[in-house]
Amino acid sequence: MRTSTDYLASLEDGRRVVVDGEPVKNVVEHPAFSPIAHTIGRLFDLAADPANNMQAEDPATGRAVNRLFLPPRDAGELTDYRRAAQLWATETHGFVGRSPDHVGAFVAAFSRHPEAFADDRGPGKDLAENVRAFHRRVVENDLYVSYAIIPPQASRTTTEHAWEGDFIQVGVAEERPDGIIVQGAQMLATGAAVADEILVSCIKPLQAQDEDFAVSFTVPVDTDGLTLYCRRPYAPVASSEYDYPLTSRYDETDALLVFDKVFIPWENVFVYKDVPGLRQQFFGTGAHVLGNWQAQIRFATKLRFMAGLAHKVAEVNGVEKFPGVVEKLGELASLVSIVESGVLAAEHAAESDDQGLFRPGARALYGAMGLQSEIHPRVIGILRDLAGGGVLQLPASVAELRNEATRGHMDRYVGSPGTPAEERIKLFKLVWDAIGSEFAGRHQQYELFYAGAPFVVKGYAYRNYGYDQPLAEVNDFLASYSTHGTEAAR
Ligand SMILES: Cc1cc2nc3c(=O)[nH]c(=O)nc-3n(C[C@H](O)[C@H](O)[C@H](O)COP(=O)(O)OP(=O)(O)OC[C@H]3O[C@@H](n4cnc5c(N)ncnc54)[C@H](O)[C@@H]3O)c2cc1C
């Protein structure tokens, strides 16, 4: 299986990643991307070690492969999948949202549903075979796939066909016998700068007039004409691991994708000028459920870490037994438990669909997801509350501890009973990186938006809850009495 050495070597290609107006020569050596590339490499090493039980027999070849790239077929495989996803998430404490298992889950579910890609409207190509072959490539080569499935923000009052200017959203500019030429942009692809390929599609509802933009395809990151414009990277400003322990390891970067007449061979096209086909791809295949279940496993892992931080801060400050603080830690425990329970309830309610994909229960999954935009800010709020000004009563950097002339003041004034200054500062710097640094601010935005704006995610919860049953219960009750009924006993 692929190791970090293989993965890092593969990133030294001709990819065009732009930072500060300049193309990056080699992402593996650049301070913005090297840390996250090494973090992803560690994930591959974990999977490659059989002791971690992340491998499963590939039904197609009999070879041991990463189980996170295979579609779960029964309850046992789904549980093993969760444990493997948890292992990867724990390696990054949930701070890497788009590890290779996220889009890997989408592709695994696609592979189980060739009928969703059957080409009865498109160009007469075997699009279902393209999806199957791509899945094989992901499984056999341990590919890290990122995705860009949202159009540029431009205007949300309408969709691409009504925007000013041609090809703002990426779409088909030309059809050729061997493939298509695409032109335009897609909003954001997290992790793409250090990924192998990008799945480009559109999950936002389009209209019939947007047909040219109703495409789904995959593109290697080093493809000619593709440029990744990364938002300001945070890792390079992390002066040391001690000062920015999260930023310095987990800044996974987000990039605007620009396609300048990019050739996509037919083999890489999954949906072609098919507006309903785009939605079918995500929602008819179980991909959205499996991919977002992976995301909730990751989210629960991160929240547990935040709860641990909050408890430790309270202990260090000697307030953990105060009734008011116990109440806050209790609320935190409840919030984390909601997400943990949502993950397990979705697993418990999982069922095999008509193509043999063992899908996590949508009601439990989207129920937990619908509250993410409330839970995450509240968890951050409690951690901020407990940390007080401790996150600012900190030296500018580790230098104050290394310098003999300043170390004495640190040791005398910044320690706590039982916690020497060096450890206390270490803890509070970690807390700041989780709640207050630029990395933390981006994470707040990520948790609110990665699966769509909160109103979109709550829409998933609404549609998958199954309101028929509660409505029937209310209607039955209303039908059980009338104006002719007996008077209530007083
Ligand atoms: C850190 C980060 C990483 C991301 N990574 C990826 C990635 O890897 N791949 C990817 O494809 N995308 C990614 N995204 C993009 C993400 O998918 C989008 O941000 C998300 O889908 C929401 O779309 P939007 O940002 O255009 O918000 P909008 O749709 O513009 O919504 C913004 C706000 O406008 C209001 N609003 C808009 N429309 C309506 C409406 N119809 N009704 C009511 N209110 C409305 C709401 O208040 C809403 O919260 C990422 C985003 C972030 C923040």
TrEMBL record:
Residues 279-478 form the HpaB/PvcC/4-BUDH C-terminal domain. Residues 3-271 form the HpaB/PvcC/4-BUDH N-terminal domain. Pfam families: HpaB, HpaB_N. Keywords: FAD, Flavoprotein, Monooxygenase, Oxidoreductase. The keyword rRNA-binding does not apply. One of its GO terms (molecular function) is monooxygenase activity. Transmembrane segments: none annotated. InterPro entries: Acyl-CoA_Oxase/DH_mid-dom_sf, AcylCo_DH-like_C, AcylCoA_DH/oxidase_NM_dom_sf, HpaB/PvcC/4-BUDH, HpaB/PvcC/4-BUDH_C, HpaB/PvcC/4-BUDH_N. FAD binds at Q153, A154, S155, R156, T190. PANTHER family: 4-HYDROXYPHENYLACETATE 3-MONOOXYGENASE-RELATED (PTHR36117). This is 4-hydroxyphenylacetate 3-monooxygenase. It comes from Tamaricihabitans halophyticus.
